[in-house]
Amino acid sequence: MQRFSRFVQPTSIALAQYRFFNIHEYQSKRILKDNGGKVEFGIPCTTIEEVEAACANIKTPQKVVKSQILAGGRGKGHFKDGYQGGVKVCKDAKEAVEVAKKMLGNTLITKQTGAKGQVVNTLFVTEAVAGIKRELYVSLILDRKSASPIFIGSAEGGTGIEELAKTHPEKIKTMKVNISEGIDHDACVAYAKELGFTGDSAEKAANQFKVIYNIGKSKDCTMVEINPFIELENGDVMEIDAKLSFDDNAAFRQKEIFALADDTQIDSKEVLAKKFDLNYIALDGNVGCLVNGAGLAMATMDLISLHGGSPANFLDVGGSAEEKQIVAAFRIITGDPNVKSILVNIFGGIMHCDVIAKGVVNAAKTLQTKVPIVVRLNGTNEEAGKQIIAESGMDVHTAEDFESGAKLAVELAVKGK
Ligand code: ADP
Ligand code: MG
């Protein structure tokens, strides 16, 4: 239940990574709407002309302009140029256009984006929902502990749910769903009542919980997060913010959803890694890592940390990487200006050490890599690999074992600062 652990104990890494495929709010809401969800009308726009046209089609006098980035906390976020708020309720179309001019093309920084922020290329211009009585938090995630889908909800929704989970965990209500029995209406009504809904509203909320569950199941979601889930003065309920995440392993059967990928929102290094079938995640340390096997990659990151360093990335080249992938891996690692040393840690099995060595030498030459490289090769064709490196005439350090390799890479990174 990675998402739940993020929720209980947010870490910058968990928030910055895209292990689970995310789509924009407007795309999530389209899926909700198509499956019985109650969302406000809105139009995604990428130009000011489109915003003007959208405003003319939105019936409420007030219009809401919502920055579309793959991170939450937009309302309380700020733009790079100091402009405050990535979600704005505007009094009329004129104001909406003014706001759109400030947001489009600007970079929004929120609690979840990291300091770099994310560029706003799309705005979702929507109806303003009037008569909001309460804003709740409702999400559906997969709980590792109970091995079942679980609803997490709180009557105190809105923007500060992570904080609430820390300070008042008793205000977080959960409902487990038995996957073989499916979702039960009465249980949903009881859960709605726990969240403060009464009478007809509890029925309406229960029906929406079923919609959320059915989407989560049929679309292979790792998370459906509605924040806020709202109750209106007239007793209706709605989802006015939605974030859907999908299981990467289900990409083969959720082609329509995975086609919605917005590469402009993902670290360009991660996009390149995907192209070369490399398992890569950018982190914020200064020791670049190139490793074969996810387990060894994790252990390498641990050893770097143990020796006082900090990994710049996770990178698993897989069991049968070709030379061109190694070159791509180097291009990605050295594309990060924070990288001050590179540790290549290979356990030769199916992967031959000499292939890696050739790749490393070629990549370092082609890319004219300036940062020091430490290579630890062990296993199949180890000697041939070491010879290639020794004969390359390049300033590549060879390490006899894993531990000394990690230690040296950290020392070199410190020196290179
Ligand atoms: P984020 O969670 O990224 O800050 P939200 O979509 O949740 O963005 O918007 C922030 C707040 O703005 C909501 O909690 C709600 O109070 C208000 N809001 C968002 N959309 C609308 C809407 N269509 N009508 C009225 N208020 C809205
Ligand atoms: Mg929200």
TrEMBL record:
Superkingdom of source: Eukaryota
Residues annotated as signal peptide: none
Cofactor: how bound: Binds 1 Mg(2+) ion per subunit.
Residues that, per the record, bind substrate: 292, 349-351
GO molecular function, one term: ATP binding
InterPro entries: ATP-grasp_succ-CoA_synth-type, ATP_grasp_subdomain_1, Succ-CoA_synthase_bsu_CS, SUCC_ACL_C, Succ_CoA_ligase-like_bsu, Succinyl-CoA_synth-like
Domain ATP-citrate synthase/succinyl-CoA ligase C-terminal: 290-407
Recorded family membership: Belongs to the succinate/malate CoA ligase beta subunit family.
Descriptive protein name: Succinate--CoA ligase [ADP-forming] subunit beta, mitochondrial
High-level lineage: Eukaryota, Discoba, Euglenozoa, Kinetoplastea, Metakinetoplastina
